[in-house]
Structure formats: structure tokens, C-alpha cells
């Protein structure tokens, strides 16, 4: 089975456990699963009576070896599109800007401060709750400090608005498959992320730009710290 299908399968098992009531429901389907495309009248016909789950892809813009800068957005967005039917969920617009850490000096990268990001993601989650979704699944494509902020804001919104929120870091969830397929763990722009992005937007992956020195095996991260990080691939 191809890796990205396995990752989608693994995600869908986890998500089915999270919202079993939403699994494989109902005969009548909305004309679209995308919140960007659905109109308010149709939205009100489906949410919350028929559709109770929403998928929110989040990522950032930062360099990724020879992959697109938006890989952390593209991967969870593709997973959400893959999963929406099976979960009977809508897909919220992707939050494409995030807390980029040590790679923010690279061309085309964006870094939102934690002070700006924290209340913004809080308001997005609270807005999904206000729109009467009962299950909010955050598909996160970007690691580092963003993960901790997402987790704590998810906890806060869940308590304050009495909704269920699941935050999934897909590359961690897929680590078993990564070991199985590649014999080693992945990393930022590593085997796992490269394979997934190649599967979804092969025309935007540029192996001809790759050179061995881009993926240097540095000493363990705990032994040193540099700003800015010397490579756009972090293994
Ligand atoms: Zn990435």
C-alpha cells in the first residue's frame, strides 16, 4: 500500500475512534465539504443536525529542501480532503501562516509571533464551536513551538465551549509506517514528508535541485543551538 494511503488510513482509524457517531453517516450529501465553497443556507441544513465534525488544517510557510515552502499546509489540506467524506466532516479553510522557528530567515518564509498566533487560533477554534460543530479535528502539518500552542489553545476552547478537539501531528502518527517503509525516522523535509508531498503535488517537487550537503547529519540537537538553522532539511 502506498505510504500516503497508509497515513490516511491510520489517521482515519484514529479519527473514527474520536468521533464514531460521525462515521459513515447518512444518505444525503452536501454539494461540497469545503467551508470556503458552501453557502450559509446549505451550511444551516447540515450543521449541526447532519454534520458535527470539522477538519482544520494548519501549517506554515518555511523552506523544505526541494519541496514547496507551503508543504506544511499542503499535506494536512490533502489529508483533510481525503478524510472528509469518510468522517462526514466539513473542511475549514487552512491556516497557512504559523509559528516558524529557526528557518524563518529563508526566502519566502513567514513567521507569525506566538503573541499573535495564540489568540488567533483560539478565535478560529471558538468560531468553529460557535458554528455548532461538536468535534473539531486540527490536522497540524508543522512542528516546533506551534504544536504546544495548538495543544494548549485546544484545551482551553474545549473547556470553555464544551466541544471535543483533537490535535493530530501527522508525521508523528505516521512514524511506524515511516520506519517500516524507509528503515529510519523522518524529519523536516525528510523521507516521510517528502514522500507525502511527492504524492500530492509531484509537479512542485524539484529533485534536480537536491544536493547531499542539504541533508547533513548534524550532532544531536540537544548539544547545540543555532539561529538561523544552517539547513532547510532537518533530520
Ligand atoms: Zn514540513
Polypeptide structure, described:
This protein is α/β, with parallel strands linked by helices. About 40% of the residues lie in helices and about 10% in strands. It has eight helices and four strands. It has a four-stranded parallel beta sheet, with helices on both faces. α5 links the parallel β3 and β4. α3 packs across α8. The longest helix is centred in the middle third of the chain and has 17 residues. It is globular and about 55 Å long. The protein binds zinc ion (ZN). The site of zinc ion (ZN) has 6 residues, from α3.
- Number of alpha- plus pi-helical segments: 8
Strand content: 5-15%
Overall pLDDT score: 91
H/E element sequence: HHEHEHEHEHHH
Structure summary, number of beta strands? 4
Q: What hetero molecules are bound to the protein chains?
A: zinc ion
Strand order of the largest sheet: 2-1-3-4
Biggest sheet details: 4 strands, parallel
Share in helix: 40-55%
What Rg, in angstroms, do the CA atoms define? 18 Å
Structural class: alpha/beta
Low-confidence parts: 21-27
Distance between the termini: 25 Å
Q: What would you call the shape?
A: globular
Amino acid at each position: 500500500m502506498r505510504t500516503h494511503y497508509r497515513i490516511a488510513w491510520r489517521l482515519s482509524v484514529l479519527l473514527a475512534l474520536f468521533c464514531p457517531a460521525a462515521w459513515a453517516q447518512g444518505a444525503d450529501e452536501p454539494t461540497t465539504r469545503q467551508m470556503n465553497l458552501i453557502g450559509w443556507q446549505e451550511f444551516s441544513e447540515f450543521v449541526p443536525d447532519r454534520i458535527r465534525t470539522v477538519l482544520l488544517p494548519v501549517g506554515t510557510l518555511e523552506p523544505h529542501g526541494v519541496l514547496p515552502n507551503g508543504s506544511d499546509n499542503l499535506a494536512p489540506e490533502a489529508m483533510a480532503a481525503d478524510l472528509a467524506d469518510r468522517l462526514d466532516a466539513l473542511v475549514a479553510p487552512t491556516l497557512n501562516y504559523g509559528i516558524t522557528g529557526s528557518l524563518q530567515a529563508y526566502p519566502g518564509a513567514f513567521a507569525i509571533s506566538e503573541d499573535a498566533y495564540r489568540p488567533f487560533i483560539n478565535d478560529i477554534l471558538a468560531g468553529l464551536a460557535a458554528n455548532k460543530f461538536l468535534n473539531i479535528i486540527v490536522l497540524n502539518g508543522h512542528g516546533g513551538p506551534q504544536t504546544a500552542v495548538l495543544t494548549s489553545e485546544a484545551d482551553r476552547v474545549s473547556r470553555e465551549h464544551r466541544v471535543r478537539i483533537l490535535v493530530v501531528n501527522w508525521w508523528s502518527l505516521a512514524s511506524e509506517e515511516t520506519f517500516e517503509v524507509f528503515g529510519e525516522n523522518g524529519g523536516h523535509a525528510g523521507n516521510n514528508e517528502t514522500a507525502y508531498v511527492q504524492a500530492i503535488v509531484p509537479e512542485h517537487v524539484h529533485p534536480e535541485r537536491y544536493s547531499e550537503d542539504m541533508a547533513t547529519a548534524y550532532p544531536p540537537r540537544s548539544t547545540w543551538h543555532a539561529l538561523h538553522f544552517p539547513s532547510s532539511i532537518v533530520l
